[in-house]
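SAMPLE LOG
Freezer: B-3
Tube label: C17
Construct: single chain, 198 aa
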Amino acid sequence: MSDLYVHKQEVDGFGTVAVRRLDAQADAGVVHGWVRAERAAFWGMNGLTQDQVADIYAHMDTLDTHHAYLLEKDGEPVGLLQTYEPEADRVSECYTVEPGDIGVHLLLAPADATAGARAGWSSALLGAVAAYVLVVLDRRRVVVDPDVRNEKAIARFLRQGFVAGERVVLPEIDLPDVYLPEKHAQLAFLRREVAFPG
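STRUCTURE (predicted):
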C-alpha cells in the first residue's frame, strides 16, 4: 500500500474499498463536482468555485486535527471522508467528548445515472470507513453530526448501527481561515464493540 492509501479492504460482493489521502489540487475537480450539486447542500459548499474547494482542503492539510480522504471503489472515486478530533471542533461544545472519540463527515458520490440504485453501496462504504477509523486508527467511538434536515444521512447512519444522540446547535465559526454557519445537527455515535463485536 502506498503512502497515499491508508486503508484497503475487500468487501464481499462489492469490490475493493480504499481510503486515500485527498490531494487538495489533484482531486479538486471531482470533489467540486460532488459538493456543488444540490443533493450536497448540507455540505455547505454549493456556491464555491473549484479553486475555493481546493483552498479549503489545502488549508485542512495543514492541520493536525482534521484530515480529508477520498474513498475509492475498485480505483474509482466514490466518496469524500473527513476525520477530526472532536475536542478541536465545535461539536465538543455540544457533547461530552470521551477518550478515543473521532469525528467523521462523509459525502457519498451521486449514483451513476446509468447504474440506477446501488443496493448495499452505502453500507459497504460505511463498513470500510468504520474499519479504518475504529480498527486501523484504534479509536473507541465515532461521532457524526449530520444536519437535522438530512434525513437520508441520519437513516443511513442508524441502519449502520449508530445510536442517535441529542439534537444540538453547533455554534457559528467565523475565523480568518474558516467560516461555518450555525448548524442544527443530529448527533449519532458508533462504538467499536457494536461495529466489531467479539
